[in-house]
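Let's practice the habit of predicting before peeking. Look at the sequence and jot down your guess about where helices and strands might fall. Then scroll down.
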Amino acid sequence: MPNFDVIVLGCGPAGERAAIQAAKAGKHVAVIERAHVVGGNRVNWGTVPSKTLRESALFVLALTRNKLHGIRTEIAGEITVADFMYREKNVVQRELDLINESLDRYRIQVFQGHGRFVDPHTVSVSGVDGLVRTRLTADTILIATGSSPNRPDDVPFDRETVFDSESILRLPRMPRSMLVLGAGVIGIEYASVFAALGLQVTVVDTRDRLLPYCDREIVGILERELQRLGIVILHGDRYERIERLSDPAPRIRCTTQQGNLLEADVLLYCVGRDGNTRDLGLETVGLAPNQYGLLEVNQHYQTVHPHIYAVGDVIGYPALASTSMEQGRRAIRHAFDIPGPELDTESLPFAVYSIPEVSYIGETEETLQARGVDYVVGRGRFDMNPRGQIIGDTFGMLKLLFDTGSLRLLGAHLVGTSASELVHIGQAFLRAESTALQIAETPYNYPTLSDLYRHAALKALSEHRRKQA
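Done guessing? Here is the structure:
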């Protein structure tokens, strides 16, 4: 029976980085991956493919919304999602090549199959036929099996009219209308992308407000822009019954609990994701996932067994590729007492790749108010920025939050073009514990959106002087 220092279940972003971290420390590492490829949802079915489609949607939106005088363009009538994703295969393959090169470089042994606990230190590997191919033992085991879309029994998923977030990118043809059930990050991203491609989109949000963990002012701008794309958002409602209609063409009808009767060519169901913990043999080692298939861990990502760790989507929020990678590294560092930075993975940048983008890091006004922290706000508006005017983004905004006493930056929030990139400037200022004066006096290229940080900091300084007067 092969023995390893570390066995990693799952080779998505969390598992991959955990395995490499261990291998760099000279550990003998095995990775068990159930899918036929490594990379997980990030590379193969979610993040990279969906962002490829988003890039095509931005191109279409630029053609239809930002028309230049004297230039005429038109888009062919029958276009499939595959047509809009011509670069996906190349991008995905390049990512897979890089991951496989890293695994080979650090001599990480990859076992393709389904991993299942036999005892606290032994994992079996089964093929698609269910037969056990081998058993592996290790001193440390890390669970990084990710998550899958929630699929209720009363939702008729058929990959023709009803899809989840992993099958939606395989639409056989481009529909004219779409109903999106769920207004979390995935729902909002896909709703805005398909609306930008010209579909009539209706979103049913089970909550009374959009993205409740984001800054409310920023979300207000996002919601206005979504409505400008033609998206209809119904808050505080959920589906009661979903029916497939077949005359004259396949369509879907949804009756909601609030009595709304909604029809569309296709339906995208994306209300939650469940941890991939089913059939892992967890019961044999005394691990019990919650009702959503998620595992409970301590601050070091240990389960009730100190040598069994869990990271990434399988432990729930924030379930981002960036945080999952860092969790994987930190778990391994803790397991083998490897020195390294102890960053709070809940204080890493967060992005919603909607149209427009939303991104933030650090505190929100709501969290500061809950803690009784006195703060000042500075805003930089895209319509007052020459680069914003040049690119035609006149609605975006940067919002900075500063501690009133020290004027140290506490949070940065963005909505608009390149928000997911611009937030990293705020991240650097946060880690440096920069003040509003330091940010305002930092030179920026001109004209750039980055210069919004100077404007926002100057506004905060003006607000601070007013409050002190």
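How did you do? The longest strand covers residues 132-143.
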